Amino acid sequence: MKSIGINKPAPVETPGLFTQIETDTPTAEGRDILVRVKGVAVNPVDFKVRKGRAKEGEFTVLGWDAAGVVEAVGEDVTLFRPGDEVWYAGDVTRSGSNSEFQLVDERIVAPKPKSLDFAAAAALPLTTITAWEAMFDRLLIDRTATDANAGKTILIIGGAGGVGSIAIQLAKLAGLNVIATASRDETIEWVKKLGADQVINHRRPLKDELAALEVAAVDYIFCTSETDQYFDVMTEIIAPQGRIVTITEASKEHNVDLLKAKSASFSYEFMFTRSMFETPDMIEQHKLLATVAQLVDDGVIKNTASENFGPLTPESLRKAHALLESGKAIGKITFEAIPA
């Protein structure tokens, strides 16, 4: 099978950054299914692994967003059979989706939305799982209590990114008032289209931006970027007994005691936790992807794909990494399958 990957950690400007090679097609065993990959997308985890976590001299296949067709199943698989169309984000500890075929545990896979083609469907799994777990498992928002949530506000920092784009929609479904941050005309328009009630500029002091809306504090904060930059202000603007979740690493030490007087909580969301540790509730990712697939087919959730870069090639993948790493991407960048 054809696979596209890297041989060492490298910046995006590196000549010949990605290479395509022929490798053996793996065999599905146990609870694994073998998927013929038909569409993929890129995420910040891709360039983080590429820049610092890949091993020197070891061919590493990136990519943790995919949609495709089940080619074969392991002997313990009960959820799928060959020919099923599926979508998933995969497991960061295993080989990624920038290949013709990929092995993935059935418990983190679900039937893809029927209304989306493979490339479009690949835009959603990782960001959907991240946003869903962040809000409903970490912030403990009750997604069914829309009446009770109506008086509560969530601030989504980085609303136009891949995670923010789906988080806005899930928050609105839960009945929350959504304040999203965006700084450019096109990103402001994007988050409003997705349902944000109000928009503030994250390039300005957030406390002042909220004050201009006559908002002193928010019940929930979902930070999708730069934890170091926003930690102190989040402790200021979170309401008493409020909850904060972030998906980005902190490189500095922060004083969590700033949250003590408010009895506020701070947590991390990492969507690979369940697959990395094979937690007993690993099947929950299958369930939530199945639920969201139905919401997409019902027209309740909008796809967040913004650009299709065509067939997956070493050069198209490099261009996508460069755009994503620049911080100027809106929504998700997707690809079709590696050319035959």
TrEMBL record:
Subunit structure: Homotetramer.
GO cellular component, one term: cytoplasm
Keywords (A to Z) from UniProt: Acetylation, Cytoplasm, Metal-binding, NADP, Oxidoreductase, RNA-binding, Zinc
The protein's name in its UniProt record: Zinc-type alcohol dehydrogenase-like protein
NCBIfam families the UniProt entry points to: adh_fam_1
Annotated organism of origin: Thalassospira lohafexi
Lineage summary: Bacteria, Pseudomonadati, Pseudomonadota, Alphaproteobacteria, Rhodospirillales
Localization annotation: Cytoplasm
One Gene Ontology molecular-function label: RNA binding
Family that this chain belongs to: Belongs to the zinc-containing alcohol dehydrogenase family. Quinone oxidoreductase subfamily.
CDD domains: AL_MDR
Coiled-coil regions, chain positions: none
Taxonomic superkingdom: Bacteria
Annotated Enoyl reductase (ER) domain residues: 10-335
